[in-house]
Amino acid sequence: KPAELSAGERPLRHHSVYRFITNITRLLDARRLWLVRRIGSLLQHIACRRRFDFSLTPHLGQSLISLPFSIYDTFVIEQKFGFNRSSIKTFIMDRLKGLLLGAVIGLPLAAAVLWIFGNVANAWLWAWIFVTCFQLILTYLAPTYIMPLFNKFTPMPDGELKQKSKR
Predict the structure, then answer these.
(1) Residue 136: per-residue pLDDT
(2) Looking at residue 161, what is its pLDDT?
(3) Which residues contact 71 (CB under 8 A, 6 or more apart)?
(4) Is residue 145 packed enough to be buried (19+ CB in 10 Å), middle (13-18) or exposed (0-12)?
């Protein structure tokens, strides 16, 4: 008989099983994404709108597939161990904000990458440079503008912990 798990190990076991299941789901979704990309590469002459459809379909499909797992993770596993502080309203609002933010940031990025692949020699290199620069810019903008949309940040109160973090 295996030894009893400590209070800290129980959530880890639940999360390990949960992550295993979600990773298998993502693997299956990656195979579908590969197929969609293959089809997309065969249809290169189609208008840019069609390319957007092929780019967005896997993302929206993955979002729908992962939704039940996110609900389970948030409202069952995290609730069971006292880590959940979100309500259903907060969960839905965070999802909607994430989709809107993904569209506001992702669609122009996808349009630029599609334009690069359609109009520039050595497109893979220029697309990589563009996406890398875009990510570096987001690294600086996210803590100030994006993360506050989803989290409340308050200054750390004076004390021992604040002093240790400044060292």
Answers:
(1) 94
(2) 83
(3) 91
(4) exposed
3-state secondary structure of 85: coil
Catalogue the E-assigned strands of the chain: none
Give CA–CA dist 149/63, Å, rounded. Answer: 20
Task: Assess contact for 93 and 30: CB atoms under 8 A.
Answer: no
40-74 per-residue burial string, b: 16 or more CB within 10 A, e: under 16: beeeeeeeeeebeeebeebeeebeeeeeeeeeebb
Buried/exposed 78-98: b ≥16 CB within 10 Å, e otherwise: beeeeeeeeeeeeeeebeeee
pLDDT of 46 strictly over 50: no
What is the radius of gyration, based on Cα positions, of the chain? 21
Give me the count of residues in the chain. Answer: 167
Q: What is the CB neighbour count within 10 angstroms for residue 130?
A: 17
The string of pLDDT tens digits covering residues 83-124 is 888 899 999 999 899 888 988 898 888 888 888 988 999 999
Q: Which residues contact 60 (CB under 8 A, 6 or more apart)?
A: none
* Per-residue pLDDT tens over the stretch 135-151: 999 998 998 899 988 88
| HSE of 149, CA atoms in CB hemisphere, 13 A | 14
pTM (two decimals): 0.60
